Every structure is written in C-alpha cells, then in structure tokens.
Amino acid sequence: MDEAAAELADLAQRLAQANDAYHRDDAPTLTDAEFDALKRRNQAIEIRFPELKRPDSATDQVGAAPSDAFGKVRHAVAMLSLANAFDDDAVVDFDARIRKYLTHSGPLNFTAEPKIDGLSLSLRYEHGQLVQAATRGDGETGENVTENAHTIADIPQVLKGAPEVLEVRGEVYMAHSDFDDLNARQVERGGKTFANPRNAAAGSLRQLDASITASRPLRFFAYAWGEVSAPLADTQHGAIGRLGALGFVTNPLTQLCSSPEEMVAHYRAIEQMRATLDYDIDGVVYKIDDLALQRRLGFRSATPRWAIAHKFPAELAWTRLTDIDIQVGRTGALSPVARLHPVTVGGVVVQNATLHNEDYIAGRDSKGATIRDGKDVRIGDWVQVYRAGDVIPKIADTDLAQRPKDSEPYAFPHTCPQCGSEAIRAEGDAVRRCTGGLICPAQAVERLKHFVSRNAFDIEGLGAKQVEAFYTDGWITRPADIFTLKDRYGSGLQQVKNREGWGAKSADNLFAAIEQRRTIPLHRLIFALGIRHVGESSGQLLARHYGSWSAFEGAMARAEVGQGHEWEELISIDGVGAVMATSLVVTFQNAAERAAIDDLARHLDVQDMQQRHVVETELTGKTIVFTGTLVKMTRAEAKARAEGLGAKVSGSVSAKTDLVVAGPGAGSKEKQAQALGVRLIDEDGWIAMIGDA
Known about the structure:
The protein is α+β, with helices and mostly antiparallel strands. It folds into six domains: 2-53, Helix hairpin bin (Helix Hairpins), CATH 1.10.287.610; 80-311, DNA ligase/mRNA capping enzyme (D-amino Acid Aminotransferase, Chain A, domain 1); 315-402, CATH 2.40.50.140; 437-517, Orthogonal Bundle (DNA polymerase, domain 1), CATH 1.10.150; 521-607, DNA polymerase, domain 1, CATH 1.10.150; 623-690, BRCT domain (Rossmann fold). The strands form seven sheets. It has a five-stranded mixed sheet with strand order 2-11-10-3-9. A five-stranded antiparallel sheet has the order 14-13-12-15-16, with no helix packed on it. A four-stranded antiparallel sheet has the order 5-4-7-8. The longest helix is centred in the first third of the chain and has 23 residues, at 2-24. The protein is globular and about 70 Å long. Mean pLDDT is 86; it is low at 62-67.
C-alpha cells in the first residue's frame, strides 16, 4: 500500500510536468507512448487501490495551466481530452460500453476522422464576426490568441448564415512541406530550427507578437464546436458538413461507420496513407454520430463517454548505434543515452535515444525477464529506433546478423563519469546512482536547475543556461550562493553586468528577482530542495501538515526511519508513504545535505502555510481515515469535505485516529480500527454526519 501511494505521488508529479511541457511550453519531455503508459499505470493503481486516488490525479486532468504571458479566457464549454484505445479490442469495448450505458441493441453510427497532431484552438463568433480565439489550456481556461488567429488564412473572419453565437473547435497545424520551408529559412537567417511540425505550429501560434505568427505557414482543421446559440445539425457528420459550408476547412478523410469492424477498417486505411499525408496525425478519433445520444452519454471527469482516440503504434527505423553516453541526473541516476547515426523517423531527424538503464541494455527488464528475446545492445549494433511521439526515441531491437564480429558487451560503469564517486544500485532500484551527492557537478547543476524551476523558486532571469554558466565559473555551486550573488559579484572587477550577454539593467533585474524570492511559501521551499520522491503536490501535503518551516525542519531532524513519534506522524500523512518518508529523513540527517539546507534557510523568510478557513464543527481537530471503496462521492471529495470541516485526513490507523470511514473492500485498516477500539462508520454514516456542511 505504501509503495502504491509513493508511486502515485511520483506519477502525479511526472505526468503534471509532462503536461506542462507539452501543452504550455511546447517542449515535450515524454513521447506520447511514454505519457500514455504512465497514465495507464496511474489508472491501474487507482483501480487496485481506489482509496489512494490523489486530488491531483492525472486521471482527472486536461492539458496544462495557461501561460501567464497571455490573457486568460474561460471556456463557456470545457475543452476536454479524449480517452485512448491502443488496439482493436479496445474499439470493440468502446462500442460495447456505449451500448451497455444506453441499453441499446440497435444500429449505431460513428464518425471516424484522423487525429491531427497540432494545437487545439477554440474560435468564438458572435453575429458572424470572429471575436475571440483561445487555446485549450487546462480545459477550463485557455490563452487569448485572438490577434494571432486573425493571421491564419484557413480561419474565416466573417461567417454568413451562422448561429448568433458559435464556438468552432479545431486544430492548428503545419503542413510538412511548409515545415521544411520554414526550417530552411530559419537556417538561412541563423535562427533556431524546429524539431517537428507540431512544435513549430504550437510555438508559432503562441507568439506575443502577432506579426511573427503571420509570417508562419499555419493551417486549421475544424472538427467540433463549443457553445452554440442554435444547433448546427442533428448528427456529428451533419454538423461537420455545416462547418464546411460556413467556410471552414474540414478533413476529407472523415467517414461514417456503423460497426467496430468498419471503424477499424477505416483506421487501417488511414494508417496506410499516413506517410503520404502532408500533415502529422497520431491516430483516428471515433465519435457517436447522433448528437442526442452524445448528450445522453455525457462526460466522465476529464473525457467524453461518446468519443475515443485510437492511437497509432510507434514509428520505427533502423540505424547504427555509434556510442553510449552516461548522463547523471539530479538524484544521481546514471542514465544511458544511445548516440545514433542520424535517421529520419516519422519526419523527425533522430540522433539520440534512451536506453533506460543497465538492465535494458543487457536485454532484460527490472524483474529479470528477457526483452528483445534476450538480445543485448552494443556499440556498433544495427538497431531499430522506436518513436511514439515528438522526443526521446527508444531502441526497440537489434539485428544480430549485422553485429560487428569484434563487438563486446557494454560494461555499465560502476563509478560516476562526472565525479568518480562509486555508483551503486540499491536493492529494488532500477537504476544505478552516483553517491557523490553535492560533490558531483552533474547532480549539483541539475539540483540548481530544479531549485530555480517554475514551480520552485522561479527566479526571473536565472534559468537553466544561466545556472550552468554561473556554476561553471564557480559563482553558484549550491542554492545558498544565489542569495549572496549580489554581495560577491554586484561590484568590483568581476561583476554580473560585465559577463557576456549581461548588462547593468539585466544584472539589476536579476538581483531584484533574487531579492523578491527571499520570501518564499513553505511548500515551494520543500519542493525546491529536490529531495527524491518529493514532488510539488507532496510539498503541499507536508507544508499543510506541519504548517511552518521550524516545525517541518525540526520533525525531519528528530525523525528516525521506521520508529518513533516523528516517524509515525510523518507516515500518517495521507499521501506520504514509507519510501518518501525515508527519503526525507535520510536527507535531513545527512551532514552535508543538512549543512546546505541550513545555510540556505538563513537567507530566507519562509512563509507559514496558510491553513484553510474552516467552520468549527464536531469534526474539527479530529483525525479521520478513509478505507475501502466510496460509492456516493470520490475519495478526493470526501477528503476535501473532511478537511473543510476542520478534520485531518490520515493514511494510516493508529491509537490517535478518531474515526474510520470504511467502504466495501476495506481490509487491514478496518481490522486495525476494531482492534484499537476506533469508531467505525460506513459511507452512509459519513454522509449523514457531514449533512449539508
């Protein structure tokens, strides 16, 4: 249970970061397949342990929060994402689920259309005039890109015969031919080239200067709608036809299907012509055609029941593996990277691929089972490259027939290539880690990058490149050095303003930004420390529980792994398990780590966590544990209601527990409560207790 909770916490952090990178920053860090795999793993754990579902679960999230650089637009109708299907059986299940939900045994029609790999956009027309354009953002609130949308030729500025209010939804994309021309022009002028058409389209639309957008060859496919003052048609297919008649470009490959077999057949046909299309697609979307049935089916928390995206499998290519490099991350993990002879995979030139860890190179998974039929990966091998998204390709296979005769198995290093410290692999860990800690330059730089990242200290003017440069010159080697930078390099012969790329104004702005961040909320500081297994949401949990830096720091300093009051209190926090707790305690009791943390804290004014305003009730100050399955409300809602009434929600039962709410499937926690004489109630009793509060 503790391991499941820790993994859910880690997944929540990784998926949130990947969402921000893809939807908000137009700089993906995971492939589509890797993201989908993490999300499926998250859902599998939640199904197995429903009581562990987190308030920040990726299951309920859509997109990412909009950037502060743009004005905000609240969507009148939410722009949701789609559930995914990865094989033909899932399409059959989709049809079966709909029939079961509707208790429908008759014929059902579906539309099947290519899933465009671009940037979602909502266009609002009033009285036929385009008045507003917004990106999807987090599904509820997007970015105002109206001026930029006015520059896209495929987007009509005026509609004739449209409803009084009409929000048209679609995808902004860039054609392959236009993408090649754009990159050629970028090279000519010495500018940065784009990795793929999706990033180019997203980056071009989200420009603060609309003239830049106007210079980029953007296109638009319309395929849906949001708020309308009058229906477009009775069917999805009819509504798409109506959008076409109004002047929008719609996809000509959209087709009506009357069975899962027809949907899959059309999927296969589109898959075959995929390489010949002048735009990127990553699957086929199926939707119930009858709009009345769509309304009956409604929505889950983040996806409609009446639609699904049938994703294409990853794209493949063969090339030569020329070398294997080892990169060292923030937590000391040694990550092998394959250096490849450049090869084009799905329209993107690939030169690097992840090799995950030493087991993957050796031809086995983390549990020792064989992968690739047990074939290892060696320098000089002819390898199959697997690409399922925009970045981070993988090595899928190796061709033994083309292996050089003098090749040797790759010897994974047992010392850190950056600092020479021993690199050990702890029991149960999939990766080998450098033990150098703060003396390892790679770990130090990555920790500093994390420290100044958006959700940590977010210091304006001190990004990843600046951190690397300052570290290389010895100006900043640990977080505390940031807050003495002005005293050390604000005047004298060596000054920030005299560095290449800096001036007096930019240096003053940096010092002002650093000064502003001396006052920091507790949860941001906890996250910024970069402690393994402690993500942004975990920082919030810990800050909410302990309230102040002194209370948190004191508890971590006194805690002992596996025993004592402080340890029991730490693991009782709902969402904190033994893995995270151990990481926290070990970090605060490591002499070098503790010295660096104490030095940093002396430069900061750490704000106490603002406690939620609650009304005094009979539950105020009580400790509640939820276990088993809740049927009438989600666990997140139950927890929020309890905390709103002044209660503390714990993840474990102890003598200090005041109440256990046990639903169907409750196990050891219910037995513990009975053994300790803790009050037990069921979900109905809980609902009766909270009433209308």
